Amino acid sequence: MKVHGALLSTASQRVFACLYEKELDFEFSGFEDGDLKLFESRAINLYIAHAYADKGNQLIYPDGKKMAILSMWMEVEAHQFDPVASSLCWELAIKPMFGMTMDAAVVDEKEAKLGQVLDVYEARLAQSKYLGGDDFTLADLHHLPNIQLLMVPS
């Protein structure tokens, strides 16, 4: 397998995390597996989780009902968490790396929005061990790159 992307890209890191969980060898070079070429990190991870279900950690469910719940939380990550967290990562982690000044107003706005998303997560995690259910899944894994950047002291 080949992975094309930037090492610092949260999208690339999302794919690296999935490959690591599936215990697969890969070459960092987009994404290629034989004749299949994909470019969206979440689609790549879904493919990897299905195609290599017998390897490493199970990141999806074979059960339709459980998979629907997992898919719902993957959508929440993609459309609610990621846009806000990515903006915060840009302001708090990436800009300082390049000597740029963060925009405090943007940080305040995005922190408030992220707080709302995290409140929803807290309610969910009061009901289940992980977002997608009782197991670590793609719904959780997809959060890792942004959380890692947000945890780095600025």
Automatic annotation (TrEMBL):
Pfam families per record: GST_C (PF00043)
Molecular-function GO term, any one: glutathione transferase activity
Superkingdom of this protein's organism: Eukaryota
Coiled coil regions in record: none
Keywords: Transferase
Enzyme class (EC, first level): transferase
GO biological process, one term: toxin catabolic process
GST C-terminal domain mapped to chain residues: 63-154
Enzyme Commission number: 2.5.1.18
GO cellular component: cytoplasm
Reaction(s) the record says it catalyses: RX + glutathione = an S-substituted glutathione + a halide anion + H(+)
Family indicated by similarity: Belongs to the GST superfamily. Phi family.
Protein name stated in the entry: glutathione transferase
Organism of this sequence: Rhododendron williamsianum
